[in-house]
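Support request from a user on the community tier.

User writes: "When I paste my structure tokens into the form, the page sometimes reloads and wipes my input. The last time it worked, I copied everything first. Here is what I submitted, just in case something in the input itself triggers the reload:"
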């Protein structure tokens, strides 16, 4: 019952906020996009915490994200995702399985966020979201802008995104996604390194490392 009441309040507040959009938040997000897209490479560590209001369970895992141009390499606890510019290779460690797929157009407005294409998180948000500047706040000793983003398409899987952006660098400190089913994703970024020399080998998936893995090639 408490979950239903909380969800109803969130829905009401979310619906009210859909009508809001302000120049300050749009300006900040534009600077985030232009700053991050100017980097040749990005290397950043992150911590993902998933929590559920329905069962009270919480799960945390750490990962590493490498980006170079349109290529990326995303390392998680139980999986490894590599995009070499043409195909996406997803290695599932527990299943010892490799899935090979073609990249599809980003569906960030539908709920596919970060893991479907981690570059989405550093690009512009004005197309698919309305945004509101909340305040300046201190996050782990760093002054940040606090923004709320609301998807324009009401059929999305989530209601809003709470984002903290470092005032001095326009780098994303963290973000939290509030899903309609009560699930929350909290992603914290650390050790942000830009324009370092990243070998092209970092973005090539070597199937020879997993000779016993089942390979599912779905590039039809």
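"...and here is what came back when it finally went through:"
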């Amino acid at each position: 019952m408490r979950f239903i009441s909380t969800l109803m309040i969130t829905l009401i507040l979310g619906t009210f906020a859909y009508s809001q959009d302000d120049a300050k938040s749009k300006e900040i997000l534009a600077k985030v996009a232009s700053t991050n897209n100017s980097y040749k490479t990005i290397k950043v560590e992150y911590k993902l915490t998933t929590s559920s209001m329905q069962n009270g369970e919480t799960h945390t895992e750490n990962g590493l994200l490498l980006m170079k141009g349109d290529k990326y390499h995303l390392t998680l606890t139980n999986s490894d995702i590599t995009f070499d510019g043409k195909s996406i290779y997803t290695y599932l460690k527990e299943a010892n399985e490799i899935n090979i797929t073609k990249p599809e157009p980003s569906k960030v407005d539908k709920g596919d966020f970060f893991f479907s294409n981690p570059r989405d998180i550093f690009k512009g948000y004005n197309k698919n979201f309305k945004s509101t500047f909340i305040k300046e706040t201190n996050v782990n000793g760093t002054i940040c802008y606090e923004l709320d983003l609301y998807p324009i398409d009401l059929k999305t899987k989530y209601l809003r995104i709470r984002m903290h952006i470092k005032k001095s660098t326009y780098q994303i400190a963290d973000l939290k996604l509030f899903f309609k089913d009560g699930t929350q994703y909290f992603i914290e970024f650390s050790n942000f390194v830009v324009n370092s020399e990243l070998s092209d080998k970092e973005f090539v998936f070597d199937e020879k490392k997993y000779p016993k893995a089942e390979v599912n090639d779905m590039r039809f």
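Agent notes: The reload is a front-end session timeout and is unrelated to the input. The first helix runs from residue 2 to 17. Residues 1-19 have pLDDT under 50 and may be disordered. Escalated to web team.
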